[in-house]
Structure formats: structure tokens, C-alpha cells
From TrEMBL:
<dbReference type="Pfam" id="PF13007">
    <property type="entry name" value="LZ_Tnp_IS66"/>
</dbReference>
<dbReference type="Pfam" id="PF13005">
    <property type="entry name" value="zf-IS66"/>
</dbReference>
<protein>
    <submittedName>
        <fullName>Transposase IS66 family protein</fullName>
    </submittedName>
</protein>
<dbReference type="Pfam" id="PF03050">
    <property type="entry name" value="DDE_Tnp_IS66"/>
</dbReference>
<feature type="domain" description="Transposase IS66 zinc-finger binding">
    <location>
        <begin position="118"/>
        <end position="160"/>
    </location>
</feature>
<feature type="domain" description="Transposase IS66 central">
    <location>
        <begin position="174"/>
        <end position="455"/>
    </location>
</feature>
<dbReference type="InterPro" id="IPR052344">
    <property type="entry name" value="Transposase-related"/>
</dbReference>
<feature type="domain" description="Transposase TnpC homeodomain">
    <location>
        <begin position="37"/>
        <end position="111"/>
    </location>
</feature>
<dbReference type="InterPro" id="IPR039552">
    <property type="entry name" value="IS66_C"/>
</dbReference>
<dbReference type="InterPro" id="IPR024474">
    <property type="entry name" value="Znf_dom_IS66"/>
</dbReference>
<dbReference type="Pfam" id="PF13817">
    <property type="entry name" value="DDE_Tnp_IS66_C"/>
</dbReference>
<dbReference type="InterPro" id="IPR024463">
    <property type="entry name" value="Transposase_TnpC_homeodom"/>
</dbReference>
<dbReference type="InterPro" id="IPR004291">
    <property type="entry name" value="Transposase_IS66_central"/>
</dbReference>
<feature type="domain" description="Transposase IS66 C-terminal">
    <location>
        <begin position="462"/>
        <end position="499"/>
    </location>
</feature>
Amino acid sequence: MVVEPQSLQSLSAEELRELTSRLMTQLRHQSALLDKLTHENALLKRMKFAAQSERFNPEQKSLLEDEIEADLAAVATEIDALQEAQAPAKLEEKKVPKRAPLPANLPRREIRHEPDSTTCACGCQMKRVGEDVAEKLDYVPGVFTVERHIRGKWACAKCETIHQVPVDPHIIDKGIPTTGLLAQVLVTKYADHLPLYRQEAIFGRAGLAIPRSTLAQWVGSCGVQLQPLVDAMRHELLQHRVLHADETPVSMLKPGNGKTHRAYLWAYATGAFENTKVVVYDFCESRSGEHARRFLGDWRGSLTCDDFSGYKALIASGVTEVGCLAHARRKFFDLHAANQSQIAEFALQQFGRVYEIEREVKELSANQRQVIRQQQAKPLLDALHQWMLLQRQKVPEGSASAKALDYSLRRWEALTRFVHDGQLPVDNNWIENQIRPIAIGRNNWLFAGSLRAGQRAAAVMSLIQSARMNGHDPYAYLRDVMASLPMQRASQIGELLPHRWQPMS
């Protein structure tokens, strides 16, 4: 909050007291946050330098060190932003560490930045008196190049002033990587699931082995800078009436004892029939339903989900439950695979007929879909329900057949809710498809190095998967967005979301 001194004179005593109270509250909040981040920073440094004593195999150790470096960079970025907000005037005093020059053998491409006009405002012709050169490292698969940004200095003898094209802000302030190289690191880590130590080796074969500690610092800084995009995506997601939800386990490391415990990556997506395609992942330490309630907040729409108990409190608070017919069908499929049950065979035939109708109405409007469902799917499902009730009376308690029948009968209203609303999906396969890349990636991750690392991965993967859902190349999307983000107004950040972004020509 910035208050102009002139405006204070027009405030009454009561307004001044209220303003003082607000400023003190804001200051206490920022001080508490700064203390929290400083404590986390100290803890991460202790973990980093104590890592040699932990009993991990070499591959696990390298993964942990990568995450600690990334977490350190993320915390440092947040602390810098907080200190900038509290004391912007002191930023100029901050010393920039010197870095080694980029290798001279790498091919270079000059990009010149000169004023549109070399005529001074006073009318005199300016003379070129020098230039500033900044080199940035770029990468396309297999080849490193160097961008030489040359900014000429132009002086007016009469005005005794120097004119120069200003430096554009960068996703990593004064960093050497281009957004193309940063996008390559993020996509390779979070879409192709290659850890940073493997990327270090790949870059080494291309002529420059970037230390994994440096790569990790870039990842951590980018994660912080991209978070506002993910926050905007979550806000957009919650504007929709129909959502999907699912969750999948991910191991998370406890560095204190070198063991892992089961954390969860929750996934939320817009409805399968929505034009806006968005998925947001939320990394949490457990499978507690409290995480879903916290994420959805005051949202009260139709949620397509499985029979997991964690969603029950949401349903009780006013969220409309939409069941997954694929889960109900799966119970009978497993039953049939186990003992060729005739009950399961008949149920599978009826489910198959419903899915045939769904394939026919998939591309229709919601109103047309609802009409056809009422005419064709509803009679089928009503007859199937009556048949299930009769069969349930014939099978013994506790049998596999009873369990398959009970799953559908207990949730029948939720399972058939799609018949009465053309915008509702028949199952939760849409979100399961969006969470599948996470399940594939688990084979390479081993574990998430920390809660912060898991949350960072969830944020970047939300952007990558949403870009895929909208038909974009994740690399091209991240490269362009990271180039635009530092100059984008906070009120217009929604223009950079995957479902609105258009590739630059």
C-alpha cells in the first residue's frame, strides 16, 4: 500500500487511525512472512550442507540436492520481492555477483537495440559514443548459441545527455539464460520427466555442461515467477459450474531420516464439455478431504469424482455430486474377469449400450445431448436399476457380486445425474487422462524432495498440461509467456493463460 504525503492532509483523525491500523497489520504480516522465509532459508541451507551425511544412493542424493537448490532459489526470490516491497529505494545498493563469461567457442548472434530516432528533443543530431553488451545463453536441442544484445549509447553535445534503449525486464533478473533455455529446462524436467543431473549430461554433450545447481536455481526462480499464472488459472477454473476432481499418490522425502511418505497430487479440471480447457494440480501432504475443501473454497457447482470419502464433506456443504459410470462399470469388469459371472456380463452389455449413445452425442450441444439422453439412455438405465435391485436380493451378503451391485445401487442418483443435464459428463475419464502424465512421471521422479518442490512441480505441470489440452506446444507456450510475463500488468495476466494464448507469428 503506497500513500502519498499530500493525501494524508485531507484525512480526518478517524481515517488516519484506520489507515495506521491497516498499515501496521500489513507490516506485521510482511514481517511474519519474512521471518518464515528466513527460517526456511536457514533450514534449507543446513539440509544442503548436511546432505553428505544422509544415507541415500547416488541417484537419490542428486535428486535431493537439485530440489534443495531450487527451493533455496525460490525462497531467495520471494525474500527479494518482499524486501523490494518494503524498501524499494535500497535495491540499487544490491551488488550483482560477477559470473564467468560464456565460452568464446559458442556461435553468437547479435541483436542490436538502437533508438528509433537519433535526433535529440532539442533538435540536434546525436552521436554514438559507445555501447553496452549483454550476453544471454540460448539453446535449441543439441546446440547452444549466445545472443549478444548490443545497446548503443547516443549523446547530444548540446543537451549533454545520453540516450539508450532501456533493458527489457527478464523472468530471472540479470540472468544469462534466454526464456528459450529456461523453457527447455522446465519442459524437460516436468513434461519429459528428466531430472536435472541427466539434463546436465545432455547439455555437456552439446558443448556446455551447465551445473545442476545452476539449473536448479533457475527452476526455483521460474517456479516463483510463474505462480501468479497458476493462481489466475485456479480463479478461472472456479468460475465454471462443472468440474472434475481426482488424486494420485506421490512419494515425498523426509530429509531428516531419509525416508519417504505418501503425499498426493490432487487434480481439478473444467468439465469435459467446456470450451475452456484448464487443469490445475495441487500438491498436498496427505489425502485428507480438507485439501479439496481448501482448494474449492466457496465453489458450489457439480463435481465429477469417484467414491472417495474425502469428497463427502464437499457434497454435504452443497456441492452436487456427479458419479463416474466408468468406476461402476469397472466393478463388473473385474467381476467378469475373475469368474465369468453372468450378472457381470449382462451389466457390462447395458453399460456398453449407454456408452454407445454417449459417443453419438459427444459433439452435440448440451440441449441436444440432454434430449437424446432422456429419450435413449434413461430407459436403459431405469431398466438396469430395476434389474440390479432384483439381482441384489438373490446374491449372498459379502460376495463379489454383492459388492459390485452395492457400489452402483448406493450411488445410483449420482451415477445417473448426467441424464438430466447435457453439460454433465458420463464419467471421470477426462480428469484421469489429465492425471496420467503424472503417473507416468512417477517412474522417473523417485520422490518429491520437499513440500515446496512438490508444489512447484504442480504449478509448472498445471501450465504444461493446460497448454497441451489447448493444442499448444508446451515449450513454445512457456518460452513466450516467460518473455511476456515480466512486462504484463497484473490486471491483464489472464491474457497469458493457455486457453487464451496465441503463438507469436
